[in-house]
Input
Amino acid sequence: RPELRAPAEQGRAAIIQRLREDGLSAAAGALDDATWATILLLIVGDLVRGDEQVMILYHMLDAFVRARGGVEPTSQLAMFLKSQSRLIKFFGDPIVSESNVPQSPDVAILTTLSGNELPTADTPLALNCVRLYDDAFRIAMDIYLCRARSAAVPVCEHLMALRVQQLRAALERVDPAYPGAHVLVWPNFVGAAEAGTEEQRIFFTTKLRYIWQTTGYANVLKAINSLPGMWEKRGVQRWTRSLPQLSVVVM
Output
């Protein structure tokens, strides 16, 4: 309801201000699970709305996790919060800077991020989905890393085109109706950004639009709308260098 938007924004701003004050004053409970969950919920809200302030919360979450140190979570809630924080950092790092991203992708990205084991043979569909999704993420991260490093380590454009074809082939094996298929925003975005032909761009952006239409997450729409500008600068500026201008997490 439109009339509730302003009060909601005021409440959100008050929560963020309180989180900042607690962090600066090292208030009791500033590093507890409730605070952790609050930051994550605010981030999810900003993703849904495509709010650029999500990057402020990203930095707040990053500082929060570092302040907690390497203590392993002991509760189910803390383990869940940790896995969600890993996900947001994984997708947020490229938006901040090319230098923020690890130099090599994990062998099993989704498993590493979630902190969980892959589904077992008792759930063949879930196991197949995770393997397909992991393949797509691994190829996408390889493309991202090669392009991000290309200023220092020139890349073979023919090989990059082959990687895009490989990514497309991986995504073509994914039925949009598969459980969790909406998580493939990043691989499709990377494919679209790196694509050198109109036909490839249409393929990846069509996938992105389907995800946006089914989830309603405005950050996906903002990612889609950023692509034409990246294509126009192809050969002049790396698309990986343009990501900070997005100010939204692509996930």
